[in-house]
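Submission sheet (multi-component)
Chains listed below:
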Amino acid sequence: LAKTTQPISMDSYEGQEVNITCSHNNIATNDYITWYQQFPSQGPRFIIQGYKTKVTNEVASLFIPADRKSSTLSLPRVSLSDTAVYYCLVGDLTGANNLFFGTGTRLTVIP
Amino acid sequence: DGGITQSPKYLFRKEGQNVTLSCEQNLNHDAMYWYRQDPGQGLRLIYYSQIVNDFQKGDIAEGYSVSREKKESFPLTVTSAQKNPTAFYLCASSITTTGVGQPQHFGDGTRLSIL
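Outcome: structure written.
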């Protein structure tokens, strides 16, 4: 089971780009990288998923270097509503036990 | 609107009682999951089910039980054997547990407290 390491917390001002990096040194060949966002007293919400290189959707980008031992979630021009906990997960999606939710990164956006 | 509904949002239990948390989904997903989240912590897997009438233990199944009699429903019972049941419980579903791009969709949770 691939474990991940993320910063415990980050602060950013409104309008800035935020990059959250996740380390996953023992990622396996078949593992995908998935990011979730969680607001207080709510369930996590899927943000983005990737295998290698770069993935972009309407809310975020995910950068994955060639060795795949880390990944970076990029949130463009954050707003106060982006204040949340962000989880990085690594797994091959072939079984529920493949998904390990660590403590995540608590992002606080400052006005 | 398709989604996952957990009820109740808040639940109180007396010591020694069993309580059942409801989880219903109308996404036509095969797989369903139960997680527990303690304050400031990540999610820990309790049970999961890949198909009707089948389920497997997760990392912390002791003191919990589940059933999966219908595709859309996956209730969790917190038994009196669970010595520290106070937590935030999250239910999730996914199309299957296999394959690419099968993110889990979560409900908004049930917060269980002991009186």
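Remark: Chain A touches chain B at residues 32, 34, 41-46, 49, 87, 93-97, 99-104 (CB under 8 Å).
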